[in-house]
Automatic annotation (TrEMBL):
InterPro entries recorded: DUF748
Name under which the protein is recorded: DUF748 domain-containing protein
Organism: Cryomorpha ignava
Pfam families, A to Z: DUF748
Length: 373
């Protein structure tokens, strides 16, 4: 056999060996990375490579806290993570990646005592860990059918609140170093809460900064309050007989400056049913006071209790304006009901946050040039 053919066969054999061994090498690298997270440990079950599309797929990743007992639950888990090179961007001269998480789940579990802190993941720079998983720029980050849980096994009754069917998409992440645009990355989020509430959020962001910039339009609508009764019984000592909850918010954070509002609305609310309540007399009195206050501040025509809470300042020094919130509560009850929708008041123009009382997020019209004489 000629030497040339031997070399070709050797190269092919080497490529086959590398192809077979590479998934195990990547899997070992990832498990070593996850085992050395500060305050956490993790594991992946399997890694599959798809060289023809420049991708690898991580199956069954789970991360556990080593500092707090989460009742055997992982802090984070996902069925799969698909990491790939974007061929569309390669043809434009850029090597960037796409990350898709399939059925991820994030668990926030309340600590047993007040002296212990709840695990939130804030001790780890997760952006750095994602970059270690895919050491090229990420242009698209996507979540498919995710879930977030808040669990308190130590309250009475136990609390289990969740967001499910969560879908999130963040684009254009590779342009986050462009100082001319503080919000280069459009995003969208949808989810369904306990009580079948519909959540949606849209806006633009730069989430890879140490303190992210973002512009947020948020809606949370038609959540059945009775589904949250365990939460209210555990932390507020009353529950709902009926009612829907809605929340609307616009928020903007640019260069640590924060401006926005929250607008919670309760519809068709009833707190106390004397005949069907099992609690003691004093608790019934307390619930009666809560229900009476809600009824007093309700707009009878719209069957709606609502207010608007303004927030402004910086990340380190922000303020919530309580007195205007009380005024809005009274105006909703006795003068004019608050609008059950976003108001279009918070606008980001360049690097400035503008409160547009006209309620329009459209860009300002350009001034017409004066005709030269």
């Amino acid at each position: 056999m000629k030497k040339r053919y031997k070399i070709i066969i050797a190269i092919v054999a080497l490529l086959v060996i590398v192809r077979v061994a590479l998934p195990f090498i990547v899997e070992k690298y990832l498990n070593n990375l996850l085992e050395n997270l500060e305050g956490y440990t993790g594991h992946v079950e399997d890694v599959d490579l798809a060289l023809y599309r420049g991708a690898y797929r991580i199956d069954s990743l789970a991360i556990y806290s080593t500092t707090q007992d989460l009742g055997g639950r992982p802090f984070f888990a996902t069925n799969a993570i698909d990491l790939s090179i974007s061929w569309r961007d390669i043809f434009k001269g850029a090597i960037v990646g796409e990350v898709i998480l399939e059925r991820p789940e994030l668990n926030f579990v309340a600590a047993k005592s007040e002296t212990d802190s709840m695990e939130t993941g804030e001790t780890v720079d997760w952006t750095k860990q994602i970059k270690a998983l895919l050491p090229i720029s990420i242009n698209l980050f996507q979540i498919k059918n995710g879930q977030i849980n808040y669990i308190d096994d130590f309250s009475q009754p136990k609390v289990d609140v969740y967001l499910r069917s969560m879908n999130f998409r963040l684009e254009n992440m590779r342009n986050t170093d462009d100082d001319s645009d503080p919000l280069p990355s459009p995003y969208s989020l949808t989810a369904i809460s306990l009580g079948e509430g519909n959540m949606s959020a849209t806006g633009k962001a730069n989430l890879l900064r140490e303190i992210p910039n973002f512009d947020l339009d948020f809606k949370f609508e038609k959540a059945n309050l009775t589904a949250f009764n365990d939460l209210f019984k555990a932390y507020a000592w009353f529950d709902f007989e009926r009612g829907d909850f809605n929340l609307y918010s616009e928020m903007a954070l640019v260069d640590s400056n924060l401006t926005g509002y929250f607008k919670p609305l309760l519809n068709d609310v009833k707190v106390l049913d004397w005949k069907n309540e099992d609690e003691g007399f004093l608790n019934k009195v307390y619930q009666g006071l809560v229900g009476g206050a809600t009824e007093l501040l309700e707009n009878q025509r719209e069957d709606q209790t609502a207010t608007r809470v303004e927030i402004s300042g910086t990340i380190s020094n922000n303020s919530i304006n309580v007195f205007p919130a009380i005024i809005e509560l009274l105006k909703n009850a006795f003068i004019k009901p608050l609008q059950k929708d976003l108001e279009g008041r918070i606008v980001v123009r360049g690097k400035k946050i503008v409160v547009d009382d006209g309620g329009s997020k459209k860009a300002p019209k350009k001034k017409k040039k004066k005709d030269k004489d």
